[in-house]
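Appendix B, example 12.
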Amino acid sequence: MIRLDEPLKLLNTFGLDVSSRLFFAFSAEESLRSLWKTNLLQLTSPLVLGGGSNILFTRNYHGLILKNNIPGRELIKETSAHVWVRFGAGEPWQDCVQFAIANHWGGLENLSLIPGSIGAAPVQNIGAYGVELKDCFVELSAFDLVSGKVRTFDQSDCAFGYRDSIFKREGKGRYCILSVTLRLNKNHEFHTQYGDISTMLDSMGVKTLSIKAVSEAVMAIRRSKLPDPDVLGNCGSFFKNPVVDASHFELLKKQFPDIRSFPAGEGKVKVPAGWLIEADGWKGKRVGNTGCHQQQALVLVNYGGATGQEVADHAQRIVASVEAHFGIRLETEVNII
């Protein structure tokens, strides 16, 4: 059933007090297909909403929001080394991580506690602590909101990049992801060299590595650095870590000897956006009802009563300041509407 003027405050992790002119929640492909047959999707501007953890509404949405609640966890294939699991796109990402760990299937533990639904994960090619979704991605099925047909996308079709995919470029707004299939590992490969994972494992007294221990270490790190959206509205990391030419980085290194970096392929260097923002003096700085979190400069927060436009304006101030200071233009991870 289509609902009118639906409040979205509880459906976006910034906690912004906005609404959608038209709203349709669905838990099965058939419901979406039935809606498509009415031609409403062709007459409105449909926006698929998952967990609302990677979106910034700067105003009320005047089109149709499709709230994807499709459930499901199905083991579809198994070998001595791997399992293939198909998840409904509406499943919360953290529930999928915990499901995998409970079954002793590895591959998702470094991605623990990332907010949102699994249907949104391929759009962003979510990643953390040296691991990306594409590392275990097999395929997804998606409903074409234009043709009304269901299409299967394999890894090549998705054209994954750093926090990027076809669904953020030429496929943006056209597809509603229905399910995601991942290949998980029975023989575990641990990735603990990135960030503070090893240090956290040591502080936890872990002697024997396990995917559960890695997951718990990652969650502890995230909780120590990132605010809980239920307490302080935010979307996690607001900006991508920029990739620059090695020659540009070397010039920056001479001027800022403590600048941090990671390899990003031949002739390229990835610079932590959080470092740039903090070095530019924005960490913990509040402007009105918004600002950068005091523990993590990369996170913009709603201190209460902020509008989406306030947050977007603050983000642009940071972008302009960092570019003027370092010659690097930051790009947002968050989808700004």
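The chain has ten helices and 20 strands. The chain has three domains: 3-68, 73-185, 233-336.
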